[in-house]
Amino acid sequence: MKKILTTAAAFTTIAFVSAHAEGMTFETVDTDKSGAISMQELVTAMPTVTDAQFKGADLDGNGELSKEEFEKATTKK
Ligand SMILES: [Ca+2]
Ligand SMILES: [Ca+2]
Known about the structure:
Blueprint: H1 2-15, H2 26-29, H3 39-45, H4 51-57, H5 67-73
Helix pairs in contact: 1-4
Bound molecules: calcium ion (2 copies).
C-alpha cells in the first residue's frame, strides 16, 4: 500500500511526461544549457505542459527544474 500511495502522490507530476518523455533527456530540454529547465524550455519541449504541472515538478519551488527534479518528474514508476 505504501508504494501505491507514493505513486498516487507523484502522479500529477508524472502525468505530463508520460506521452512525451520518450527519448527526452534533461540535456535536450535544457536548450540554453543553464543546468536547469525553465517553464519556457519545458513548454518548448512539451507543449501540453501546464503551469500547475511545472510547479508540481519544481519540488524546491525555485522556478526551475533541476536535473534531479526533471528526472523525478519523468520517472514513470
Ligand atoms: Ca535552461
Ligand atoms: Ca527547482
